[in-house]
Amino acid sequence: MPASAAPSPGLDPEGIDRLRARVEAHVAADRVVGVAWSVSRGADVEVGAAGVNTLGEAAPVARDTPFRISSMTKPIVAVAALVLVEQCRLRLDDPVDDLLPELADRQVLVDGAGPVDGPTVPAARPITVRDVLTFRLGLGMDFTRPWPQPLLQALAERGLGGGPPAPQGPPEPDEWMARLGELPLQYQPGERWLYHVGADVLGVLVSRAMGHSLDRVVRELVLDPLGMADTGFTADPDRLGTCYGADPTTGERVVYDPPDGQWASPPAFPSGGAGLVSTVGDYSTFARMLFDGGRLASGDRLLSRPMVELMTTDQVGVGDRAEGPSPDGSSGWGFGVGVTLRRTGLPSVGSYGWAGGMGSIWSNDPAEDLAVVVMTTDMMACPFPPPAVIQDVVTAAYGAIAD
């Protein structure tokens, strides 16, 4: 909330009681195994949890239970990159060629939706740091195209991902970049918004800019200053629960990742796009820092207010051709976050945040001074719209606004 604004009246207790009841009803109906949530407005912070970490076990979900947050990793790594921009270690409009030579002198497909061995032309210009941050480097998932997509298939064939997060699969960063460099760009740098690959490239970029692993860079630049001790690229199997998916044929719940699975040991490739685990408490701290214009609880700054404003402003709208997460143009993209451009639901214009396909969502609504974080044990079939339990938490959070 801006310093000049009057304090918000906070949250209505009856509204929060409704929220708790809805979450518990979803767990009781076996629509989700476990849920943790946080809703904050002004000085009011409400946190809750329901269900268990793993079916058949007694360990209940708690406010400090870690969850695999998949794509909610992206905003955290974007903040690390912006810290480096403010330190002048990176510059938004500089080419990435020096740090990422694998992406220098690119060839670009004539047909961006076609096979990766199709005809190409030279790139019109180098890829910049801004291109990587805004997912317009020319590589990624195309939300406007049907599946499967040739680029994603090529990534999977090279062991670079392309499906649900699997941290133990991809090779170490130098090899990852070498294999990525074998592929042409789908589109010219700056031409089109494409999802996800830019975040993994950003992770390598900030790692090389600092000369350390992404794990260490994110911890030093973001997690430690914020006191996010329960966030990282690995988790204690005794605390981490099971991640569940759905059988595509029967729809029945299946185990995607057990507690001692993919996140139990350090990955060779810490994914800047989907690799972190976190808790609702930790992520709420991150959300509040952005609400406070980059300021830490101590009064020190992680980012400047203008940089936070830049990060959370749409960067990809181009005239009548709106780009970004929503084909209808209602949402744009800043630096690592989706941005609401047209109100189609409860979040106000200017709200920002993102979802994780493994069952999490975060939204900051500056107009309402409202932050909502939800983490669950169950993967999403589709984040647009999210599962009913997440929709109900968001709806109930807005319903709890006291004024």
Describe the protein's architecture and organization.
It is built from 10 helices and 13 strands. It is of the alpha+beta class. A 7-stranded antiparallel sheet has the order 2-1-13-12-11-10-9, sandwiched between helices. A hairpin with a 2-residue loop joins strand 1 and strand 2 (44-51). Helix 6 (197-210) crosses helix 7.
Order of adjacent strands in the largest pleated sheet: 2-1-13-12-11-10-9
| SS summary, helix count | 10
CA distance, first residue to last residue: 16 Å
User: What class do helices, strands and sheet pairing give?
Assistant: alpha+beta
What do the pLDDT scores average to? 94
Radius of gyration, whole Å:
20 Å
Bulk shape: globular
Query: Which ranges are low-confidence, i.e. pLDDT below 50, for 5 or more consecutive residues?
Result: 1-5
Q: What are the secondary-structure elements, in order, as H or E?
A: HEEEHEEHHHHHEEEHHEEEEEH
Largest sheet: 7 strands, antiparallel
Give the SSE layout.
Blueprint: H1 13-28, E1 34-41, E2 44-51, E3 67-68, H2 73-86, E4 107-109, E5 120-122, H3 129-133, H4 150-157, H5 173-180, H6 197-210, H7 214-226, E6 243-246, E7 253-257, E8 277-278, H8 280-291, H9 305-311, E9 331-333, E10 338-340, E11 352-356, E12 360-365, E13 370-376, H10 388-399
Antiparallel strand pairs: 1-2, 1-13, 3-8, 4-5, 6-7, 9-10, 10-11, 11-12, 12-13
Helix pairs in contact: 1-10, 2-6, 2-7, 6-7
Structure summarized in a few sentences:
With 403 residues, the chain is α+β, with helices and mostly antiparallel strands. The protein is 27% helix and 15% strand. The chain is globular, with a radius of gyration of 20 Å.
